[in-house]
Design goal:
The protein has 331 residues and is mainly alpha-helical. Helices cover 46% and strands 5% of the residues. The strands form three sheets. Strands 1-2 form a two-stranded antiparallel ribbon. Strands 3-4 form a two-stranded antiparallel sheet. Strands 5-6 form a two-stranded antiparallel ribbon. α3 packs antiparallel against α4 and α6 runs antiparallel to α7.
């Protein structure tokens, strides 16, 4: 009797005339829009302007896509720069190959530029964006399903994933079922998002600590999921390179959370708060001289003086309505 299994999609690309419509691209785009929407809601609930998020995203998203591709090419150079390979294919993002660590790192640079232009404190934006960012990752992972890539080792579990012969590893061409690591990571990411929303609502986590918690929780899951994967990867001391990156980020986030454990919501040590959760203005104001939501003269969306770094008195950025992107491959 055949056990239950997850079937492979019949196709991952459709053509609208000469234009290919790729399922993975749709997953990435949907994830970006979901992230911007959720971040905008959270930012507005903290007294900010939704336009801030749209403007910052115009910088963060392109930087993130470039960073993701650079991470892939740098960590897997033999795919493009060895004998018999075509270096020009390093530019073919649609063939797959983006890395989340690189996307987040360079995306943060783009976000920093956008924040400077809008007069917004980067740590405040990062905390508001963290749940939306991991939501985008959860949605983007479904692109791996349509491309039949980045799956795990062979398995006979009831939720095993059927992989077509053309996409199976060279070492196991006759093995049809594998761990659906795309599903594992997508579900883990949704769990991380729920955790972040709960922590922010319950404890009003601020000044980069919520973003650090995202890094901590995401990399913890990425480590065990990475151990299941059988796709090509460079190794160092017996571990996949992504495992080492995850370990380093995990330790870094842990150190940051420990170092800031006594910080008050305004980012200063306990005993010296400035009496406000508002981000500071000053040099972070827009270039036109007007004050953004970080400036102290702008009132929050509810008419109060709480800026985006503050939040509601119950600690919930959105009240009861709070709702919980890399070529053709997300590493």
């Amino acid at each position: 009797m055949m056990l239950a299994y997850i079937p492979s999609p019949s196709q991952g690309v459709w053509h609208l005339g000469p234009v290919p419509i790729r399922a993975y691209a749709l997953c990435i785009i949907a994830g970006i829009f979901a992230a911007v929407w959720l971040t905008g809601r959270r930012w507005e609930a903290r007294g900010g302007n939704r336009d801030d998020i749209a403007d910052i995203a115009l910088w963060a998203v392109p930087f993130g896509l470039v960073g993701g591709r650079l991470y892939h090419v740098i960590t897997d150079p033999e795919l493009y720069f060895t004998a018999g390979k075509q270096p020009i294919r390093a530019l073919y993002v649609w063939d797959g190959g983006l890395g989340i660590p690189g996307a987040v790192a360079l995306g943060a640079v783009g976000a920093w530029i956008g924040c400077r232009r809008r007069g917004v404190r980067l740590a405040d934006f990062a905390d508001a964006a963290a749940p939306g960012l991991v939501l985008a990752q959860a949605m983007g992972r479904w692109g791996n399903y349509f491309n039949q890539e980045l799956f795990g080792s062979p398995t006979n579990l009831p939720w095993k994933l059927l992989i077509d012969p053309a996409h199976r590893p060279a070492g196991s061409p006759d093995v049809a079922f594998y761990h659906p690591t795309f599903l594992y990571e997508s579900l883990w990411d949704l769990g991380v998002m729920a955790l972040l929303l709960w922590l922010d609502r319950r404890y009003r986590v601020r000044r980069g600590r919520l973003f650090a918690t995202y890094v901590l929780a995401y990399t913890a899951g990425r480590a065990w999921i990475e151990a299941l994967r059988v796709d090509h990867a460079n190794h160092f001391l017996g571990l996949r390179l992504n495992d080492w990156v995850s370990a380093g980020l995990f330790v870094g986030a842990l150190i940051y959370l420990y170092a800031t454990r006594r910080a008050s919501p305004d980012g200063s040590p306990d005993g010296s708060p400035d009496g406000s959760d508002r981000p500071s203005g000053g040099s972070d104001r827009p270039s036109d001289g007007s004050e953004g939501p970080a400036g102290e003269s702008r009132e929050g969306a509810d008419g109060s003086a709480d800026g985006p770094g503050g939040g509601h008195s119950d600690g919930s950025p959105e009240g009861s309505d709070e709702a919980g992107a890399e070529g053709a491959e997300e590493r």
